[in-house]
Design a protein that fits this description.
single chain, mainly beta, 11 strands
Length: 120
């Protein structure tokens, strides 16, 4: 079964940058969109950013990360990246990669997550 695998999370100082990557564990899967979510300790999982492959790759961001984070990816390779700049301590969370395998489904394929810790 195809799985998503994230990488790139680590400890970084406030104001720094990180690049998260996500790819399928083996083979490829047809996806309508891929995105990133995060969950901080004691909080609900929240949407961070997404990219849809139709229409030239439209991107969407949570207000809290607009102007600081950039999502990019390759539909054919089932890869998605999240460039995170100007990181803040409140960005500390486990970041999850997810995919919508078709237009009618919500995100139905998830990775195990990668920890991002931003120190003040």
């Amino acid at each position: 079964q195809v799985q998503l695998v994230e990488s790139g999370g680590e400890l970084v100082q406030a104001g720094g940058s990180l690049r998260l990557s996500c790819a399928t564990s083996e083979g490829t899967v047809t996806t309508y969109a891929m995105g990133w979510f995060r969950q901080a300790p004691g909080k609900e999982r929240e949407f961070v950013a997404a990219i849809t492959w139709s229409g030239g790759g439209d991107t969407y961001y949570a207000d809290s990360v607009k102007g600081r984070f950039t999502i990019s990816g390759d539909n054919a390779k089932n890869t998605v990246n999240l460039q995170m700049n100007s990181l803040k301590p409140e960005d500390t969370a486990v970041y999850y990669c997810a995919a919508r395998t078709n237009y009618y489904n919500d995100y139905d394929l998830w990775g195990q997550g990668t920890q991002v810790t931003v120190s003040s």
